[in-house]
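Before going further, learn to read the protein records used in this course. Taken together, the C-alpha cells spell out the fold as the letters spell out the chain. A record is reproduced here so that you can trace the correspondence yourselves:

***
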Amino acid sequence: MMFKTSLRLMLVLLLVLSCGKEKSEPEVMVTEEKSESFEYVVDQFADLKILRYQIPGWEQLSLKEQKLVYYLTQAGLSGRDIIWDQNYRYNLTIRKALETVYSDFSGDKNTEEWKAFEEYLKRVWFSNGIHHHYSNMKIKPGFSADYLKELLAASGATLEGDAFDVIFNENDSKKVNLAQGVDNIAVSATNFYGPNVTSSDVESFYGNMKSPNPEKPLSFGLNAQLVKENGVVKERVYKSGGLYGEAIDEIIKWLELAKGVAENQPQADALGLLIEYYKSGDLKTWDDYNVTWTAATEGNVDYINSFIEVYNDPLGYKGSYESIIQIKDFDMSQKMAVLSENAQWFEDNSPLMDDHKKKNVVGVSYKVVNVAGESGDASPSTPIGVNLPNSSWIRKEVGSKSVSLGNIIHSYNNAGSTGRLKEFSNDEKEVMLEEKYGQLADKLHTALHEVIGHASGQLNPGVGTTKETLKNYASTLEEGRADLVGLYYLYSPKLQELGLVDDWKSVGKAAYDGYIRNGLMTQLIRLELGDDVEEAHMRNRQWVSAWVFEKGKKDNVIEKVSRDGKTYFNINDYEKLHELFGELLRETQRIKSEGDFTAVQELVETYGVKVDQDLHSEILERNKQFNSAPYSGFVNPVLVPEMNDQGEIIAIKVTQPDSFEEQMMNYSKLYHFLPEVN
C-alpha cells in the first residue's frame, strides 16, 4: 500500500544525518549540492509543480552497491512504457505524436496555442497519459483540433482516428470511474480490460478461479489484461513472450545484472524469483518472491519493482507497473524501529473487537529510506510511504516492509509555503501548533499508517479478500482504516513513553487539526467545482473527517465556524474526537473482517463522495490568492556510469536534469521498448 500525503525530531535528524559520516577509503565519491543552495523547484504549470530530490548517502555506498542501485534503476525505467499503456490504450500513440511535434516543429513557438500545446504535453507526461493523475478526468487541451492538425502536418507526425479524436471529444472521459450504480469497468478508460469487457465478466471470470491452497489465495488477475474475443473471456499475461514482453525482457536484463552484484544471498534469491516471475507470469512464483523479498531485510539497498498497486483498477484486481529504488537511512530507521518493536502492543490495545485483532503481529519492519530512482506509477507523482507486500496472508505469516521516503519528504518540506495554512486555520493557536508540531505529526502519521495500520487486524475465517467482498470500495476502506489506526495512536501518551515525542498532546492536536482541515476543506482545491471525490485516498480522508464531524455534532466536538464570509472547522474536544476515531476504526475493521459490502458502500457513499458545492466554491475562491500548485511530482536524479577501456563501470556520478521536458524526452528516447499498440 502507498501513502500519498506529505517526528520535529525526525526532521532534525534527516537534516543532520543526510550528509552522514564519510566512508573510509570510499571507492567512489560524488559531491552533491548542499541543501542550502539546492534548487528544489524545477517547473510549475497548470495545477502541477515539478521538484528535484537529492540522494543523501550516495557517496557512502561502495562501488558494488552503487552498481546495484544503477542496475535496479535501469530495470525500473525499462518498464516505463507499461504504465502508459495500462492507463489507456491510446496513450503511447498519442505520446509519440505529441513528442514528435515537440521535437520537430520549427514554426512560431511564441503563440498562445503553442504554449497551450506545451502545457498539455507536460500535463500528459506528468500523468503518464491523457487522464489526470489524481482526478482521473481526461485532461482538456487549451488548443483546437485544427491547430493540432497543423502541428502534426508541419512536423511529419501522424495521429489519426480515435486516437486523435479522443483528445477533444467526451469519449473515455474518466480513467477510473468508481460511481455507484454503473458498470465500473465499462465506464472506465483504464486499459486493464478490453473495450467490451464488463464488470460481470470480470467477477465471473475470477470468481471461478480457485487457489490450490485457500489459506494462501493467489492474486488472480494482478499481472494480466482481461479481454473478450469472439465472446470468450481470457487473459493476456504480462510476461516475457507475452503482453509487454519487449519491455519485460529489458527489465529482466537489468535485474540479471543486479542479481550479479547483490549484497547478500537472500537479496539475490529474491531477485532470482522476480526474474523467474517475469519470465513465467506465474502467480505462485509471485508469492514465493514476496515471501523471500519480505524476509530479505539486510543490506543498504532495497527496491520495489513489478505490477503492485491496484488503485487504477475499479475492481481492484490489476496491478499497475511501478519501481522505486531505495538506499537505507540506518540512523533514522533505528530511531523509528521502536514502532515495529511495539507492533503487538498497538494491536493489543487498539479499539478493535477481540476477534479482529491479530494474536501475533509478525515481521513488521519500518525504515526511513532515501529514493535513488522511481518509475511507472511511482513517477513523476510519488508516494511518501510504502507498505508491502499487499497479500494479507503473507503479511500475517511472514510480515511486511514499511518505508518512509525521507528525501522525498525533505524536498516537499523545502519547496512549500505556509500561506494556505494561515488562510484555512481557524485561529493563531492552530497555526502555531502546526508550525511547531505539524511535520512531526505528519511523519508519525505516515509511520503509524504504514507500520501499524496496514499490519493491523485480520479477516474472519472463510471471508474472501477485500477485492472480492468490498469490490470498488476496497482501496478506500483499507486506506481509511490505516489512517484511523494512525489517528487513534497519535493522541496517545504511548508515543512519549517510547521517546518519539516530547509533548504527545500537542503533537496529537496538531495531527487532528491538520487531518480535519484537509479532509473537510483544503483537499478540495484539487477538484474542479461540481466534481465528486473519486481518488481512494481523498475519499478516505473525507469520509473519515465527515463521519466524526457528523457523529460529534451532539457534543460539539468539531465546530463549523463562519466568520467574515469564510468557513473554518475548529476542534473543541480532542479527547472525544480520539474516542470517535476509535469507534470508526472498530467499525471499519469489522467491515473488512466480515466483508460487509452494504456497510462499506453506505459509509463511503454517504460521507466520502459528494461535496458541499457552496463550501467548495468558497474554498476555490479563497485559494486563488496562492500561486503554489496543489500537486507536486519529481524529476529523478540521473546516474551516469564512467567506464574503463574494458567496458567496466569504475564510477557512477549523480547529476540532475536541467528541466522536466529534458528528462521526459530522454526517457522516451532511451526507454521506449513497446509498440504504440499492444
